[in-house]
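Standup notes, structure subgroup. Blocker cleared on the ribose-5-phosphate input:
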Amino acid sequence: MVASLPGDPGIGAGLASYLGLEILPVFSRRFPDGEIYLRFPHVVEGGEILLVQSMYPAQCDRLVEVLLALEALGRYGSRVHLLVTYLAYARQDREFLSGEAASLRSIVRAVTAFGLETLITVDAHNPRAVREAMSGGRYLNLVPGEVFAEAISRKYGGRGVSVVAPDRGAADRARELAKHLGGDYVVVNKVRDRVTGRVEHDLSPLDSVRDLAVVVDDIVSTGGTVASIASYLTGRGVEVVLAVSHALLVG
Ligand code: R5P
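Run returned:
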């Protein structure tokens, strides 16, 4: 059965219909102080559940919903596969400054402590760090390279394409997409001041890009990263396409 938590924008229902699976209803409301109440009114002993949630927006509430659901399903002996379409707190994936919380580890440890069968993410920021932080269970990270490549080829087939990774963390993503598109890829060097958060880019690797650039990233948050790359490229007469998995579009 498929159970959609309140942050799921409809992917659970789509999967249930595509896979011919039943929906397990979820009831949720707020207590007067804002705390979350959650119930599976028709849960049965020993079921196998695909639980679907996106942790954006309202990351903290969305995380609590996952924890509440896992506790309840666990008491009924359910085997749970958790699909988190957007994994919050994923970018702070290690300690950059001493004493910092490595947020990703806390989130992944908390969620997998309930004995998940499978954790599934969609284009997680750092899948290796997710896997390392897991307390158990299988891990699948779904990568969109092939899907992006099909859409881009349909619209821009025949053009000389270069894939652009906005930072070294996106290099694997760019390599994979370039392989599907049959083009090359370049990696921009992004340096973040860990105290002020200020970001600087060395855009010189972009000088080799000629006709069409596909900038690929996991997340667009404020858009600052892709905007500086796009304006540099368009200023040089290159057409720019953005391929992004999680368009937060903050502000
Ligand atoms: C960071 O490493 C991520 O992969 C994205 O590049 C980043 O979150 C984008 O943020 P923004 O859109 O605010 O520049």
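Discussed briefly. The mean pLDDT is 96.
Next: hand off to the docking folks.
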